[in-house]
Design a protein that fits this description.
12% strand; alpha+beta; 3-stranded antiparallel β-sheet
Length: 255
C-alpha cells in the first residue's frame, strides 16, 4: 500500500510505496506554511487507510471466494470493489456531524474517503482538495492496473503483496523467466507478484537454513513408522559386531 506523510520543514504532503527493490516517493502537493500539522497528519492517516482498503480488494478478490450469494464473503468483496466509484464523492462531500451524530460507512474504503474529506473540510483549502482528489484517482488506478497484470508505475508495489488466486498472465510471465534462468531470475522477485497467500517468491538459488532441533515426540514416532523395509540398521551387539541387513535378504555382513 501507499503510505502518506507530512514534511513539516518543506510543508509538503508526500506519498511513498515499495517496489521490491526499495521505496519510491513523490510529492502530492505543497501546503500553506501556516497549516496545522495535526490536521495534515489526520489527512495523511486517512489517505493511508484508504490505500490499504483499496489494495485489500486486490489481495482478496471476489473471484477467490467460494460463494457469491448475498451476504457471503464473495458478495462483500465484490461490493467493496464496486465502492471505488464512491471515493471521489466521499472526499468532496464527506459525512459531517449533525446534532452530535455522525454517519459511519460500512465499507472501509468509503469510510476512509469520508475521513479524508472531513480532514479537508477542516483545512478548507481548495487546491489541497483538488490535489487529494487527483492522488486518490492515481492510487485507485494503480490497483486496477495490478488487477490487469500491469505492474508498472505505482502498481509495482503489488510485487510485495500476496494475492488469493493466480493471474494466468503473471503465471505465464514467471514461467518464461524461470525457463531462461532456473536458478531464480531477478525479475521474478521484483516484476511479478506472488500467487500464494502469505508467501512470496524467493530466488531458487537461495538455500534454506536447516534447523538442528530434535523432532517432537509425535513427529519422531511417525518418522519411524514410515521407514521402509529396504534398509534397516542394527546397532552394535554384545560381541562388538555391527551388522546391516538390507531388504529381506538373509545375507549377513560382519565387520
Amino acid at each position: 500500500m501507499t503510505r502518506y506523510s507530512i514534511d513539516p520543514e518543506r510543508h509538503e504532503l508526500i506519498a511513498t510505496w515499495g517496489t521490491g527493490e526499495g521505496d519510491l516517493a513523490t510529492r502530492v502537493t505543497a501546503v500553506p506554511a501556516g497549516t496545522g500539522t495535526a490536521a495534515l497528519m489526520r489527512l495523511a492517516r486517512a489517505l493511508t487507510h484508504l490505500s490499504e482498503a483499496a489494495w485489500r480488494t486486490y489481495t482478496h478478490p471476489a473471484s477467490a471466494s467460494s460463494s457469491m450469494a448475498p451476504g457471503s464473503e464473495g458478495w462483500r468483496r465484490a461490493e467493496e470493489r464496486k465502492a471505488f466509484d464512491e471515493v471521489p464523492g466521499a472526499v468532496t462531500r464527506p459525512n459531517l456531524p449533525e446534532d452530535g451524530v455522525l454517519d459511519v460507512e460500512y465499507s472501509p474504503l468509503v469510510e476512509s474517503a469520508h475521513r479524508a474529506g472531513r480532514a479537508l473540510h477542516v483545512l478548507g483549502n481548495v487546491d489541497l482538495t483538488k490535489a487529494v482528489l487527483a492522488e486518490t484517482a492515481t492510487e485507485l488506478a494503480a490497483v486496477e492496473n495490478a488487477e490487469l497484470g500491469d505492474l508498472t508505475g505505482r502498481a509495482r508495489q503489488a510485487v510485495l503483496l500476496s494475492r488469493e488466486g493466480a493471474c494466468p498472465v503473471q503465471v505465464a510471465a514467471a514461467d518464461r523467466l524461470l525457463e531462461q534462468d532456473p536458478f531464480g531470475p531477478r525479475g521474478i522477485v521484483h516484476q511479478h507478484r506472488p500467487h500464494r497467500r502469505g508467501r512470496r517468491h524467493r530466488p531458487l538459488a537461495r538455500s534454506r537454513r536447516r534447523s538442528h532441533r530434535p523432532l517432537p515426540h509425535h513427529a519422531a514416532r511417525r518418522s519411524r513408522q514410515h521407514q521402509t523395509a529396504s534398509t534397516k540398521i542394527i546397532p552394535w551387539d554384545f560381541s562388538g559386531t555391527f551388522s546391516a541387513v538390507r531388504g529381506t535378504s538373509e545375507g549377513l555382513f560382519a565387520a
